[in-house]
Amino acid sequence: MARLPADTDLVGQPDPRLADAVDVARTAAEQEGGSDAVGAYVDAQAEEGGAVTHLFEANYSGYQGWRWAVTVACASRAEPVTISEVVLLPGPRALVAPEWVPWERRVRAGDLGVGDLLPTAPDDHRLVPGYLWSDDPAIEDVEGELGLGRRRVLSRQGRQDAAERWHEGGHGPASPMAVTAPGACGTCGFYLPIAGSLRAAFGVCGNEFAPADGHVVHVEFGCGAHSEVEVEPSPVAAVAELVYDDAQLDVDPISRREGAGGPEQPAGEPDRRAMGSGESAGGREQPAGEPGEGAGGPDEPGQ
């Protein structure tokens, strides 16, 4: 088993030789990241076993507040200073990723899809073995029946977690729907209380027209589909027996006026009644001295 030098402490004042090895540490950092990536010197920190870590500002883009950490050590006073490691570490104001969350703890309500499996941990605090007393009378009634009990049932902590979640959820007494409701679910005919120790506080809505149909609701939740809701009838206005519909108007064109002697003479047409008797029926005037034509035709000569 390797032993530490006698002049070194686990954690204390750094060895002066190691504390003064700033240039050695900078050279090692520049070899790792390049001369442009190593900034100003920050500080030196003593490590366990007598090693010393020198810190330099990192000039990498995207690594604001990070530092180059170069750890130096020596086996004894007669040995030269050597480089143990060169790494990038976040400083007090560094931009770092959020704290790591294990995969099994990243699932949230609503993430489970069709075909997905979400196994529970063997030590899940929400569950207890089915052969133990669960403090729930509805479960305890069947625990004595051999073969009918479930392997695990909700523990008291599991029921309390569910009750708090339902109470603070969208179907709890403090939701906007419940605040404006005309009545509570506990007085509604569609309210179905659940069995067990949570019966006094929770039930299931059985109204198909209610927004919480088929969901667990608090006894003080409510909505506008309460079974006993009443709407005051509005006054009926009296309607007159004769109703005039003036949405459409029937337009009757004015007919042409007729005079006493007959229809009015159109403009631009000569008045036949004012013509002399010499005008023939065909509209041509009979020349003077010409023999007139009878009904059968012109007069024969010598007749």
Quick overview of this protein structure:
This protein has 303 residues and is α+β, with helices and mostly antiparallel strands. It contains five helices and nine strands.
Contiguous runs where pLDDT drops below 50 for at least 5 residues: 1-10, 276-283, 292-298
Enumerate how many helices there are, as a single number: 5
Class of secondary structure makeup: alpha+beta
The sequence of SSEs as H and E is: HHEEEEEHEHHEEE
Estimate the helix proportion, in percent.
Answer: 10-25%
- Rounded Rg: 54 Å
The total beta strand count reads 9
Mean pLDDT over the residues:
77
Strand order of the largest sheet: 1-2-3-4
What is the strand content? 15-25%
- What is the terminal separation in angstroms? 176 Å
Shape verdict: elongated
**Largest sheet, described in full?**
4 strands, antiparallel
Oligomer, anyone? single chain
